[in-house]
TrEMBL record:
Residues 22-34 have a biased composition (Low complexity). Residues 22-42 are annotated as: Disordered. The lineage of its organism: Bacteria, Pseudomonadati, Bacteroidota, Cytophagia, Cytophagales. Keywords: Signal. This is PepSY domain-containing protein. Residues 1-20 form the signal peptide. The keyword RNA-binding does not apply.
Amino acid sequence: MKKVLFAICFLFGAAAVVNAQDTTSQDRSQTQQYRDQDDDKDRQAISVADLPSSVRDQLQGQDYTGWTVANAYKKEKDGQTMYLVELKNGNETKKVKFDALGNKIKEKDKKDHGGQ
């Protein structure tokens, strides 16, 4: 009887260990996903020619040598106009957010993993 009780306790303990997970990393990625979706709302696609000259000057600068503009977007937020530019360089992609004066607000690098 003791062996059976011990075996049952062992199985419950093993099941608890197997199911123990760190959920904080999953919560962070979901939060980041929602934040990215919020950034994508209310933006309109524009051509590179429609970007302000200050933003185009930044893109032609030394920081973005070798990068080409894949997409450009305009967004109004809190009474300010912002521009999101998606850049490509080989297998790498980068999103850069500028204000109307050409000041970089945010930059996000992302490597293309071939559809993975």
